[in-house]
Amino acid sequence: MEFVQRRLPGVWEIRLCPLRDARGFFMRAYDVALFEQAGLHRAWVQENHSRSERRGILRGLHFQFPPYAETKLVRCVRGAVFDVFVDLRPESPTFGQWDSLVLSEDNHCMVLIPRGFAHGFCTLTDESEVLYKVDSPYNREHEGGLLWSDTTLNIQWPEPEPFLSDKDQQNWTWQVFVEQHAQRMQDLFGR
User: Fold this and answer.
1) In a domain, 64, yes or no
2) Is the dihedral of CA 41, 109, 49, 118 positive or negative?
3) Active-site residue 132, yes or no?
4) How many domains does the chain have?
5) Distances from the Cα of 154 to the Cαs of 25, 41, 94, 141, in angstroms?
6) What's the CA gap between 179 and 191, in Å, rounded?
7) Residue of 62, 68, 142, 181 with catalytic role
8) Which strand ranges, in their side-by-side order, compose the sheet holding 117-123?
9) What is the model's pTM?
10) Does residue 103 contact residue 112 with C-beta atoms inside 8 Å?
11) If 50 and its partner were Cys, which of 110, 111, 130, 144 is the partner (CB 3.0–4.6 Å)?
12) What mean pLDDT comes out for the span 83-94?
């Protein structure tokens, strides 16, 4: 495994190293010792599996407020997705900035997204499956979402007219988040 710090503080790209032979490949998808050595091990409490059955589906941008804010370890095991993460930590020097990474069954990359980030992805293939671990249980009363098409964030999605859930069409703009909800993220620093 190779751990690569991304542009936004706390976000890590993890490159897996498959061992290939005539049968296919074998690889470690998680190793406590290596993650501890990199300072990235978490007590994962839940693993989620998302399947999308067409190109251009967009899920997100989702997050949870403290005390249920969650670190995510995201991996695409079938197809490919354009994975996006937005810094929601008010005291961060990159507050309001986003970054992205293509995750696919072919590139064997994962991304570790710390607490205090919104996360979403857009499918790049007709069938995509994403697995992600979280270090905090889901809590409906503490969830939030940012509007994928917010012009202030100006995320450069690969699909200009994605297929969205009704819920994701109603997510907050960046301005609404900053004015009404950002203060709830303050206590993430120091954790």
Assistant:
1) yes
2) positive
3) yes
4) 1
5) 39, 32, 15, 28
6) 24
7) 62
8) 98-104, 80-87, 117-123, 58-64, 143-145
9) 0.94
10) no
11) 130
12) 96
- Tens-digit pLDDT profile for residues 116-129: 999 999 999 999 99
- Let me know if residue 161 belongs to a domain: yes
CATH code of the domain in which 76 resides: 2.60.120.10
Q: Which domain holds residue 99?
A: 2-17+28-186
* Helices (runs of H) and strands (runs of E) counted in the chain: 3, 13
pLDDT value, residue 191: 45
Show the beta-strand stretches assigned E in the chain.
2-5, 12-15, 19-21, 24-26, 46-52, 58-64, 72-78, 80-87, 98-104, 109-113, 117-123, 128-134, 143-145
Decide if 138 is catalytic: no
Contact status, residue 130 vs residue 62, Cβ threshold 8 Å: no
pLDDT for the residue 51: 98
Q: Identify any residues that bridge with 62 across adjacent strands, giving them in sequence order.
A: 119, 145
| Annotated catalytic residue, options 132, 138, 142, 181 | 132
> Using CA atoms, how far apart are residues 111 and 177, in angstroms rounded to an integer?
24
Cα pseudo-dihedral 102, 132, 98, 172, rounded to 10: 130
Please say whether the beta carbons of 46 and 156 come within 8 A.
no
**pLDDT tens-digit readout, 31-75:** 999 999 999 999 999 999 999 999 999 999 999 999 999 999 999
**Residue 191 lies inside a defined structural domain of this protein:** no
